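User: I'm designing a mutation panel for CoA-substrate-specific enzyme activase, putative and want to avoid disrupting the core. Could you give me a predicted structure to guide residue selection? Please restate the sequence first so the numbering is unambiguous.

Assistant: Good idea. Sequence first, for numbering, then the predicted structure tokens:
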Amino acid sequence: MHYIGIDIGSTAAKVSVFNDIDLMENFTMPTGWSSIETSKEIKERLEKSNIEIDKSKVIATGYGRISVPYADKTITEITCHGKGTHYLLGKDCTVIDIGGQDTKIITLEKGKVSNFTMNDKCAAGTGRFLELMANTLGVSIDELGRMALSGEDINITSMCTVFAESEVISLIGSGTKRESIARGIVNSITGRVYALLHKHGATDTVFLTGGLCEVESFTHLLSEKLGVKVQTSPLARYAGSIGAALLSKDI
């Protein structure tokens, strides 16, 4: 028997597979224009790995969870991220999940979600915002993060992604160093996370999930802004799919 969690986010789909005991496999792919097509590609890839969907338990979560016709059940990403984070960290914490289109703060108590807060629907302060700004600077997200470490503190004041992009272009035109612009972009995201966390409240332990967990420089700068060591894991981007897979063992 296999237990499969599928987390279809707005920009990337993550998949985790357990057997009766261990985490066997994780993989990710772009969500693309159609979550339905992505779910078909996921099924094909699993079957190539000799994982029989019909003999497995499958839970889908995330933005495109209703687009997985072979899922036995759908569960919200809040619950799945909580379950997956507790598996990875092994204790209660405050989860910061920076996704492609939103940011979520989740409190875990006794291994379960006790409270959560989400940002508004604006993309500012999300992974998509960072991706757009990196493209404007002509660098990768990893490069932007490294540049930000050596930049001077400046503020990107626009709350709207479109206006923020115009502000970045103006800074480029005025001769501001790219490192400082990169620092301002990261400051914009960490500042919004700080405000959301302040509104929500935090425990002593903070854990970062989502694609930005792989950008070490971002985790460092977020820790500076929050005034607490932000923990993460190489598997933290799979927290949602891991949680979904674990929850599938109960159906």
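For picking mutation sites, this is relevant: Helices lie at 35-48, 77-89, 127-137, 141-149, 161-173, 178-200, 216-226, 239-247. Residues 2-79+239-248 form a domain with the Nucleotidyltransferase; domain 5 fold (CATH 3.30.420.40).
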